[in-house]
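Appendix B, record 7
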Amino acid sequence: MMIGTELAGHCFYLPNPPVLPTNWGYRDIDATQSLIELNGNHWRKILTIMAKIMVNGQDWRQYRDIQLLKHKESIGFAASSLQPNSKVHIICGQESAQGLQLNINEFISINSQCNKLLKHPQQAIYLCPYLDYRQFPNQQINQLREELGLQLLN
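Structure tokens (predicted):
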């Protein structure tokens, strides 16, 4: 299962999908708000961290509520292979990495002070913690943003 366009340049990989509202579409104006209302605080956190990672040059709240998942991001759930059209793959959590059968030993740490963010040496595949503030705080979000060539968040 996937949410977002198959042509997205960035794909996030998560183990479990949210409950989708009836007649929901990722391009709906209120798509993220509908997911949050139906799935609660857990999905608000997931979508907020995604927005903080992907936003460029605007407020992450506005980006989450209006643009997230509309054009440049998608989410693959319980994936067994990487999304072929995406150029950047952000694998969230151990369960997602195991489902993709990635050899974690091939990955290198992005930052020598923190070994929770890993990158494949030849491809744009990133292993990161599950999208939860306790596991993936703003400092690590900024480290991933820097690796992706995005300006740091305040």
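Remarks on this record: Residues 74 and 148 are 16 Å apart (CA to CA). DSSP finds five helices and seven strands in the chain.
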